[in-house]
Amino acid sequence: MRDMTRRTFLGVAGGAAAVAGLGLAGCGGDTTTPSGSTGTAGTEGGGTITAGSAYAPSDYNPTSTSSAFCLGANWHVLEGLYGTDPHDYSTFTELATGDPEQVDETHFTITVREGAAFSTGDPVTTEDIVESFDRTKANATYAAFLTPIDSLEATDDTTITVTTSIANFSLLKERLALVRVFPAGTTDDELADTPVGSGPWMYDAITDNSVDLVPNPNYNGDHAAADSGLHYDILTDATARMTAQQQGTTLVMESVTADAISTIEDAGCKVDQVQGFGTRFIMFNTTKAPWDNVTARKAIMYAINTDQMIENIFSGLAATAKSYIPVDFPNYQEASTVYSYDQDQASSLLSEAGVTPGNLIIRTTDNTQAEQMGIQAQQDLEALGFTVEIKTETSQATYAAIDGGSDDFDILIAPGDPSCWGADPDLLLNWWYGDNVWQQTRTGWSGSAEFAQIRELMNTALGQSGDEQQATWKQVYDIIADNCVLYPLVHVQTVTASWADPATAPKGVAIEGFEGIGTTGMSFIDCKTVSA
After folding, report:
1. What Gene3D superfamilies does UniProt report for this protein, alphabetically (predicted)?
2. CA-based angle 248:253:258, to the nearest 5?
């Protein structure tokens, strides 16, 4: 499944809120020098890595957070048994010393790294790991992802026994990587404020405007911090981030806007444009006619000009969906139905469905791109004869209205990205096609025969591997595309800038080993400052 090398996958050099218990929107590096690093001779390490974050921190609690900033910062502070490298979504050992050893179809043992300790100096125990798992699985955000794992048990001081509900569960490492380990007995308030972990970094100072990390003096893993500090400036304003990067106040700038790419690149920054899963999706209210008719839904899909959206709204930094999974992802397979702009096809399908265009309500969240997509969709659908009203509210207000069951909307256009937790297809599918609020309440589609078929196939795939698993996932992609109840319109790119060469950096200091990723957050594992 993962035949690409780490850190080379996805890279092209050149909104996260919790809703009804489901957050909207993992990290490692090897010891080799990544592609894109400068290799410049001079002082290496011992400085401070500085970064401009596009997202503000909220809840750091690793058992519940869906905060874009806090998830990314926690990658550096808290270890799991396994970690997920957000550059290519491969897994690697953190607290575990190797792969799980299979005892039988539903039992595995994992050995814990000797001498692992939290930044407090307390040793990491198997009891800490078990409690961290239990508390994470109890949270609504993570529960669906961890359902295939029944339990973790502390067999002895160095061994964990895992019991799965799926025979020969093939994604065990990927799911265990979601669980960040903290000292048993830590309160939720303590976790939300300043979590303690066993990773290479530890939190030193946290404010609303900046966050400082320092090396964990007790870390004994393979990815020790090479610098004396990791400093984040919270710069949610794009202009402020750009100014800080141009001045060299930050070595890395998250979320470069399309109009700033050439400017910052011309200044000497390395720019990484990475295609990710992050989507702007369309969702139909299938409890309301005519959207209970798949032919009517398909008509709308063909009526929306996503190519124009990509050009006008995203400045080319997105791709039209050809499947539920983006083209560059390891488990991508093109869906049997690929939607492209075709007004004649749309009109024909409306006639076939017996639909006479009338009044239609498009809901959008207040995400700027979703709002603009709603406006273009309005124009596209009015060209078919619909009279379209747009309702735009915050994510919280939008989902509260829909979840209340009284909202008379037809279509929702909104952002979402569960890939901050990983990118195995089952995880990504479970976000919107799990047995949860999305299909039970928001689309009203959970009672359909097709949804039952999707769930059965997804469960089957969990016990498979290789080509057999890929074939099962392909069936799921096809059913989701053919029914288009909740489906990506576009998958977006993330753009990150970094000073990679101290000779061109404004302050003579650069960062070596940094590569942008395709989701929110920044990974500084195995990175270090360099100066000429």
Report:
1. Dipeptide-binding Protein, Domain 3 (3.10.105.10), Periplasmic binding protein-like II (3.40.190.10)
2. 120
Q: CA-CA distance, 229 to 532, in Å (whole number)?
A: 19
Closest to 142 measured CA to CA, from 90, 193, 177, 188: 177
Q: What is the pLDDT of residues 310-332, one digit of tens each?
A: 999 999 999 999 999 999 888 99
Could you give the CA distance from residue 389 to residue 220 in angstroms, rounded to a whole number?
Answer: 58
Question: Given CA atoms 498, 500, 505, 511 in this order, what sign does their dihedral have?
Answer: positive
Cα–Cα distance, 467 to 234 (Å, whole number): 44
Contacts of 32 (CB under 8 A, 6+ apart): none
The predicted structure's pLDDT at residue 39: 39
Helix, strand, or coil here: 344? helix
Task: Name residue, tokens 């007790």.
Answer: 218
Cα dihedral 425/426/432/438 (nearest 10): 180
Q: Strand, coil or helix: what is 412?
A: strand
Q: What are phi and psi of 426, to 5 degrees?
A: -65, -40
CA dist 362 and 290 (Å) reads 14
Q: Residue 51 to residues 172, 212, 255, 311, 531: CA-CA distances in angstroms?
A: 33, 10, 11, 29, 17
Please report which confidence band the pLDDT of residue 25 belongs to, taking 50, 70 and 90 as the band edges: very low
Judged by DSSP in three states, 512 sits in strand
Report the predicted TM-score, pTM, of the whole model to 2 decimal places: 0.88
Distances (CA, A) of 263 to 242, 245, 271, 447, 505: 10, 11, 11, 51, 14
DSSP letters, 68-123, are HHHHHHHHHH---SEEE-TTT--EEESSBSSSPEEEETTEEEEEBPTT-B-TTSPB
CB atoms within 10 A of CB 246: 18
Distance CA 199, CA 446 (A): 40
**What tokens appear for 193 in the block?**
């404020």
What pLDDT was estimated at residue 152? 98
Measured between alpha carbons, how far is 390 from 376 in angstroms, rounded to an integer?
A: 11
Q: Per DSSP, what are the bridge partners of residue 48?
A: 229
CA distance between the termini of the chain: 41
CA-wise closest residue to 245 among 504, 427, 525, 515: 504
Residues with Cβ within 8 Å of 173's Cβ and at least 6 positions away in sequence, in order, are 82, 91, 99, 100
- CB–CB of 453/267 below 8 Å? no
- The set of residues, in sequence order, having a beta carbon less than 8 Å from that of 354 and lying 6+ positions away, is 290
- Token digits of residue 61: 């609690």
Q: 92-96: long-range contacts at Cβ-Cβ below 8 A with a sequence spacing of 24 or more?
A: 92/6, 92/28, 92/30, 94/28, 94/199, 94/221, 95/124, 95/129, 95/181, 95/198
